[in-house]
């Protein structure tokens, strides 16, 4: 699974497999292994051009957020999942300087070509993941 996640072109079915795997508590625990390899690799796939891959990976990440005991680790410096979950929701709008400085560095001064996630289902799952990690803290 880790090899497939690391491949230059991961198999199309990988997103759906991860989403299905993460529906079971055992699957979530495996993906949330403290080495962080699987989670970091999934976070890297959130911006893939293939909608099916993004949908599956974001679904898996959202499902992993149901494990409240992992929230601090997911948001902490070891994984730092917040920028990866927020970036697809961000647009190119300019914000006042004081607001810009409050954002994670990865979300500051985005280029004009930055676009929000186009797929409504994926945006919804990203928001659900953010709500889950917020409620758990």
UniProtKB/TrEMBL annotation:
Gene3D superfamilies: Leucine-rich Repeat Variant. Residues 14-123 form the Protein HGH1 N-terminal domain. InterPro entries: ARM-like, ARM-type_fold, Hgh1, Protein_HGH1_N. It comes from the Eukaryota. PANTHER family: PROTEIN HGH1 HOMOLOG. This is HGH1 protein. It comes from Sylvietta virens (Green crombec).
């Amino acid at each position: 699974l880790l090899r497939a996640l690391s491949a230059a072109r991961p198999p199309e079915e990988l997103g759906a497999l991860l989403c299905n795997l993460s529906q079971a508590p055992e699957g979530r625990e495996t993906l949330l292994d403290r080495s962080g390899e699987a989670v970091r690799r999934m976070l890297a796939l959130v911006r893939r051009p293939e909608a099916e891959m993004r949908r599956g990976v974001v679904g898996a990440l959202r499902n992993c957020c149901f494990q409240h005991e992992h929230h601090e680790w997911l948001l902490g410096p070891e994984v730092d999942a917040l920028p990866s979950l927020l970036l697809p929701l961000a647009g190119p709008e300019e914000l006042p300087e004081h607001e810009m400085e409050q954002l994670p560095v990865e979300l500051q001064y985005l280029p004009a070509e930055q676009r929000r996630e186009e797929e409504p289902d994926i945006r919804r799952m990203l928001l659900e993941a953010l709500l889950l990690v917020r409620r758990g803290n």
